[in-house]
Amino acid sequence: MKIALIAHDKKKDDLLKFIRLHLEFFKDHELFATGTTGTRIIEHTGLEVNRCKSGPLGGDQEIGAMVANGAIDTIIFFRDPLTAQPHEPDVSALLRLSDVYDVPLATNEGTASAVLHYLNYKDRA
Ligand SMILES: O=C(CO)COP(=O)(O)O
């Protein structure tokens, strides 16, 4: 399964913690990430990650294009709801495309945990 991992700056530590908690799961999948998120994941977990550009420089749009082309199955995007993002239109566009193509997108840890449980269940079914 192809999984995109993204986190806004104030949520990056939370995403790293989440990935470490579910390391065995993530080892079994092909990972993609926006630039800085990807670098942090590689440094802190040793996982292989295909890095796109940084979010504000077009990374969200790159992931969006992959969604439109059927190249992403799930997105885990820890958003920061309390900080304005200069590239908010890109973020909204990615959320919209996930709805257009019915790609599961988790924007917080609770939903991400639920999605992982579902994917584990689906793998075994
Ligand atoms: O801004 C982002 C998502 O909107 C994330 O980008 P980075 O992973 O490059 O910080």
UniProtKB/TrEMBL annotation:
Which cellular components does GO assign to this protein?
A: cytosol
**This protein's UniProt keywords:** Lyase
Tell me which InterPro entries the record gives. Methylgl_synth, Methylglyoxal_synth_AS, MGS-like_dom, MGS-like_dom_sf
Entry annotation: catalytic residues: 60 (proton donor/acceptor)
Give one GO term, molecular function aspect: methylglyoxal synthase activity
Which reactions are catalysed by this chain? dihydroxyacetone phosphate = methylglyoxal + phosphate
Residues crossing the lipid bilayer are none
Give, as one word, the top-level EC class. Answer: lyase
Q: Which SUPFAM superfamilies match?
A: Methylglyoxal synthase-like (SSF52335)
Q: Which Pfam families match?
A: MGS
- Its Enzyme Commission number(s) read 4.2.3.3
Q: Where is the MGS-like domain?
A: 1-125
Record: residues binding substrate: 8, 12, 34-37, 54-55, 87
List GO BP terms, alphabetically: methylglyoxal biosynthetic process
- Tell me, in a sentence or two, what this protein's role is: Catalyzes the formation of methylglyoxal from dihydroxyacetone phosphate.
| Family membership noted in the UniProt record | Belongs to the methylglyoxal synthase family.
Q: Which HAMAP family match?
A: Methylglyoxal_synth
Would you tell me the protein name for this molecule?
Methylglyoxal synthase
- What species does this protein belong to? Salinicoccus sediminis
UniProt lists the gene as mgsA
